Amino acid sequence: MSAEQWGRVDADGTVYVRTADGERPVGSYPGASPEEALAYFARKFDDLAAQISLLEQRIAAGHVSGPEAESGVSRLRDAVAQSNAVGDLAALVARLDALAPLAEAKKAEADKAKAEAKAKAAAERATLVEEAETLSAVDAERMPWKTTGDRLRVLFDEWKRLQKEARLDKHTEDELWKRFSHARTTFDRKRRQHFGALDEQRAQVKAAKEALVAEAEALSTSTDWGPTAGAYRTLMDRWKAAGRASKKDDDDLWVRFRAAQDAFFAARTAASSVVDAEFSANLEVKEALLVEAEALLPVTDLQAAKNALRGIQERWEAAGKVPRADIGRVEGRMRAVEQAVRDAEQDRWRRTNPEARARAEDAVTQLETTIAGLRTKLEKAQAAGDARKVTEHEQAIAAREEWLEQARKALEEYSG
């Protein structure tokens, strides 16, 4: 439609637009013809129509968000209402009215998506809070401090990332942050208390071990070998029971403790080496005596063996000490010979014990008498044809003959 249909130019050059409510002035274009003036204001109308067309296209293509569409419709509606243009303004309004439901739907969709995003963000934030609270609630004795601290730092970084991605409403944000911050603070407080107590405990252990080191160093020059070696064993037990100081303190103190201990035992070893060298000749004497003593075995003449062993023992004592490393070996061999002689003496006493021999003889006599009586009974049962009695007497005789054989063997031992 032509511009003349929607507007006119008055004689004074004022341009009017025709609307359903009547005419209204839209301006003037000095120095121009009526046609040029109408064309100027018609172009303004075309600009508005082009803006509405662009908004229609963008909404249809989904290139604008709900709030942007709604804002665009509202802005253009105001622009049309306030426009100084010549054209079918009612048609533009109608087009905007048609866009309004689409813009509202877009906004509702955007609001829903925004609400869902906030709910998701709140849920993600709540998950971080719950994990932080669970971590901080672990008892101090069972708390894995490093891994928990590392994990809480990761959760805090995740919190900041989520916070940048989506803001929650102030109440929800504040409540979740309060819980999250409290969990981190609880963990930090527990950690300070735990390691504070640990530092105090380690300080006490350090003091105790410093005292042990002082004792060990005081003993390092002792030449009272036996008691001092025992004292070092006691110190070692106390060291183990003392617990652990910090790694550096523990390592440094252990170096000093071990050095004192090593100094003592090195001195003892050196002294023992000197003594062992002096006792080497004694060892040779005792090894020769062992050969002489072991030649007495097995014992065939007890009295001769006892006499010979007594002389060997006297020379053994007179020979003196042997090197420490050989004590157990040579003493063990001598004890074996002495035990063999004692065993032989015990065996002879057992075999010559008159009371035991008398008991053995009495057992043999009683069994022989019993068997003789049973044989008489057996003969009578056989003569009477009493099969049951015959069987009983035969079984009784067989059992006692076995006992008799054993008794006679026992008696023979006392006759050896």
Brief digest:
The chain is mainly alpha-helical.
Based on the model shown, name its key terms.
mainly alpha; 416 residues; 3 strands; three-stranded antiparallel sheet; 81% helix
Molecular structure report:
With 416 residues, the protein is mainly alpha-helical. It folds into four domains: 3-113, no CATH class; 114-198; 275-351, no CATH class; 354-413. Helix content is 81%, strand content 4%. It has helices at 3-6, 34-61, 66-81, 89-136, 145-165, 170-219, 225-241, 247-294, 302-319, 324-351, 354-384, 387-413; strands spanning 7-9, 14-19, 22-28. It has a three-stranded antiparallel sheet. A hairpin with a 2-residue loop joins β2 (14-19) and β3. The longest helix is centred in the middle third of the chain and has 50 residues, at 170-219. It is elongated and about 175 Å long. The mean pLDDT is 87.
Approximately what portion of the residues adopt beta-strand conformation?
under 5%
Calculate the terminal CA-CA distance, rounded to whole Å: 157 Å
User: Reading side by side through the largest sheet, how are the strands ordered?
Assistant: 1-2-3
Our count of helices gives 12
Q: List unreliable stretches of 5+ residues.
A: none
- According to DSSP, the number of beta strands is 3
- SSE ordering: HEEEHHHHHHHHHHH
Shape estimate: elongated
Question: Helix/strand-derived class?
Answer: mainly alpha
* Estimated helix fraction: over 70%
